[in-house]
Amino acid sequence: MEGSWIHRIQVRNDELDSFGHVNHARYLHYLEDARWAFLEQCGLSLTELRRRGWSIVATEARLRYRAPAFGREILEVRTRVIPQGPVRSLWRQEIHRPRDQRLLLEAEIMGAFLDERGRPMPLPEEIRRRLMGPPDSKDA
Protein backbone atom coordinates (compact mmCIF):
# COMPACT_ATOMS: atom_id res chain seq x y z
CA MET A 1 0.00 0.00 0.00
CA GLU A 2 1.82 3.07 -1.28
CA GLY A 3 2.21 6.07 1.02
CA SER A 4 1.57 4.06 4.16
CA TRP A 5 3.13 4.08 7.61
CA ILE A 6 4.54 0.71 8.74
CA HIS A 7 4.36 -0.84 12.20
CA ARG A 8 6.00 -4.21 12.90
CA ILE A 9 4.71 -6.82 15.31
CA GLN A 10 5.65 -10.36 16.24
CA VAL A 11 2.95 -13.01 16.59
CA ARG A 12 2.88 -14.56 20.06
CA ASN A 13 2.09 -18.23 20.41
CA ASP A 14 -0.82 -17.51 22.76
CA GLU A 15 -2.54 -15.67 19.87
CA LEU A 16 -2.92 -18.89 17.86
CA ASP A 17 -6.13 -20.84 17.57
CA SER A 18 -6.52 -24.62 17.71
CA PHE A 19 -5.57 -24.84 14.02
CA GLY A 20 -2.15 -23.31 14.68
CA HIS A 21 -2.67 -19.94 13.01
CA VAL A 22 -3.52 -16.50 14.36
CA ASN A 23 -7.10 -16.36 15.59
CA HIS A 24 -9.21 -14.08 13.39
CA ALA A 25 -10.13 -11.76 16.28
CA ARG A 26 -6.46 -11.04 17.08
CA TYR A 27 -6.08 -9.14 13.82
CA LEU A 28 -8.30 -6.37 15.21
CA HIS A 29 -5.80 -5.98 18.07
CA TYR A 30 -2.90 -5.79 15.61
CA LEU A 31 -4.71 -3.10 13.62
CA GLU A 32 -5.55 -1.07 16.71
CA ASP A 33 -2.00 -1.33 18.03
CA ALA A 34 -0.72 0.02 14.70
CA ARG A 35 -3.25 2.88 14.71
CA TRP A 36 -2.16 3.97 18.21
CA ALA A 37 1.51 3.75 17.23
CA PHE A 38 0.72 5.89 14.17
CA LEU A 39 -1.17 8.45 16.28
CA GLU A 40 1.73 8.65 18.73
CA GLN A 41 4.16 9.16 15.84
CA CYS A 42 1.93 12.04 14.72
CA GLY A 43 2.12 13.61 18.21
CA LEU A 44 -1.35 12.47 19.25
CA SER A 45 -0.74 10.10 22.14
CA LEU A 46 -3.60 9.10 24.41
CA THR A 47 -2.26 11.62 26.95
CA GLU A 48 -2.28 14.40 24.34
CA LEU A 49 -5.78 13.53 23.15
CA ARG A 50 -7.08 13.59 26.73
CA ARG A 51 -5.29 16.91 27.39
CA ARG A 52 -7.16 18.44 24.46
CA GLY A 53 -10.47 16.86 25.56
CA TRP A 54 -10.68 14.69 22.44
CA SER A 55 -11.25 11.03 21.82
CA ILE A 56 -11.08 8.96 18.68
CA VAL A 57 -13.48 6.12 17.94
CA ALA A 58 -13.89 3.44 15.32
CA THR A 59 -17.40 3.54 13.91
CA GLU A 60 -17.15 0.72 11.37
CA ALA A 61 -14.71 -2.09 10.57
CA ARG A 62 -14.41 -4.28 7.48
CA LEU A 63 -11.78 -6.99 7.29
CA ARG A 64 -10.87 -9.30 4.42
CA TYR A 65 -8.70 -12.25 5.37
CA ARG A 66 -6.31 -13.37 2.62
CA ALA A 67 -3.86 -15.82 4.20
CA PRO A 68 -2.98 -17.10 7.70
CA ALA A 69 -0.18 -15.96 9.99
CA PHE A 70 1.61 -18.37 12.30
CA GLY A 71 3.43 -18.28 15.64
CA ARG A 72 6.56 -16.14 16.06
CA GLU A 73 6.23 -14.58 12.59
CA ILE A 74 7.08 -10.93 12.10
CA LEU A 75 4.23 -9.01 10.46
CA GLU A 76 3.97 -5.50 9.06
CA VAL A 77 0.81 -3.48 9.55
CA ARG A 78 0.59 -0.75 6.91
CA THR A 79 -1.65 2.20 7.74
CA ARG A 80 -2.90 5.08 5.64
CA VAL A 81 -5.55 7.67 6.55
CA ILE A 82 -7.94 9.06 3.95
CA PRO A 83 -10.30 11.98 4.72
CA GLN A 84 -14.02 11.30 4.42
CA GLY A 85 -15.41 14.78 4.89
CA PRO A 86 -14.69 17.20 7.74
CA VAL A 87 -15.35 14.75 10.61
CA ARG A 88 -14.72 11.18 9.49
CA SER A 89 -11.61 9.44 8.27
CA LEU A 90 -11.02 6.08 6.63
CA TRP A 91 -8.08 4.12 8.00
CA ARG A 92 -6.90 1.71 5.30
CA GLN A 93 -4.72 -0.99 6.76
CA GLU A 94 -3.02 -4.09 5.45
CA ILE A 95 -1.09 -6.81 7.22
CA HIS A 96 1.82 -8.32 5.30
CA ARG A 97 4.35 -11.02 6.08
CA PRO A 98 7.71 -9.46 5.10
CA ARG A 99 9.59 -12.71 4.54
CA ASP A 100 7.48 -13.54 1.48
CA GLN A 101 5.61 -10.20 1.01
CA ARG A 102 2.32 -12.08 1.30
CA LEU A 103 -0.78 -9.96 1.92
CA LEU A 104 -2.57 -11.54 4.90
CA LEU A 105 -5.36 -9.08 5.61
CA GLU A 106 -7.00 -5.94 4.22
CA ALA A 107 -9.00 -3.68 6.51
CA GLU A 108 -11.01 -0.49 6.33
CA ILE A 109 -11.73 1.19 9.64
CA MET A 110 -13.98 4.25 9.66
CA GLY A 111 -13.08 6.63 12.47
CA ALA A 112 -14.15 9.93 13.95
CA PHE A 113 -12.73 12.38 16.46
CA LEU A 114 -15.04 13.41 19.29
CA ASP A 115 -14.96 16.57 21.38
CA GLU A 116 -15.15 16.72 25.19
CA ARG A 117 -18.95 16.27 25.02
CA GLY A 118 -18.65 13.13 22.93
CA ARG A 119 -19.86 14.80 19.76
CA PRO A 120 -18.16 14.41 16.36
CA MET A 121 -15.83 17.30 15.65
CA PRO A 122 -14.12 18.59 12.53
CA LEU A 123 -10.41 18.01 12.69
CA PRO A 124 -8.26 21.10 13.09
CA GLU A 125 -6.22 21.60 9.91
CA GLU A 126 -2.93 21.04 11.74
CA ILE A 127 -4.09 17.59 12.93
CA ARG A 128 -5.56 16.73 9.54
CA ARG A 129 -2.18 17.45 7.91
CA ARG A 130 -0.36 15.29 10.46
CA LEU A 131 -2.68 12.33 9.95
CA MET A 132 -3.29 12.52 6.24
CA GLY A 133 -0.08 13.96 4.92
CA PRO A 134 2.64 11.77 3.49
CA PRO A 135 4.23 9.59 6.16
CA ASP A 136 7.80 10.44 6.93
CA SER A 137 8.84 7.52 9.07
CA LYS A 138 8.71 3.83 9.59
CA ASP A 139 8.22 2.21 12.99
CA ALA A 140 10.91 -0.46 13.25
Annotate the secondary structure layout.
Elements: E1 5-10, H1 26-41, H2 46-52, E2 55-65, E3 74-84, E4 88-97, E5 102-114, H3 125-132
Antiparallel strand pairs: 1-3, 2-5, 3-4, 4-5
What features would you describe in this structure?
With 140 residues, this protein is an alpha+beta fold. It has one domain: Thiol Ester Dehydrase, Chain A (Roll). It has 3 helices and 5 strands; from the N terminus they run E-H-H-E-E-E-E-H. The chain has helices at 26-41, 46-52, 125-132; strands at residues 5-10, 55-65, 74-84, 88-97, 102-114. The chain has a 5-stranded antiparallel beta sheet with strand order 1-3-4-5-2.
The CATH class is identified as Alpha Beta
**Helix fraction by DSSP (H/I, runs of at least 4):** 10-25%
CATH-defined architecture: Roll
The Cα radius of gyration reads 16 Å
Q: What is the H/E string?
A: EHHEEEEH
Q: Beta-strand percentage?
A: 35-45%
Q: What's the number of extended β-strand segments?
A: 5
Poorly predicted runs are none
Overall structural class, as computed from helix and strand content, comes to alpha+beta
- Corresponding CATH superfamily: Hotdog Thioesterase
Features:
single chain, 140 residues, alpha+beta, Thiol Ester Dehydrase, Chain A, five-stranded antiparallel beta sheet, 3 helices, 22% helix
Task: Briefly summarize what is shown.
By secondary structure, the chain is of the alpha+beta class. The protein has a single domain, classed as Thiol Ester Dehydrase, Chain A, CATH 3.10.129.10.
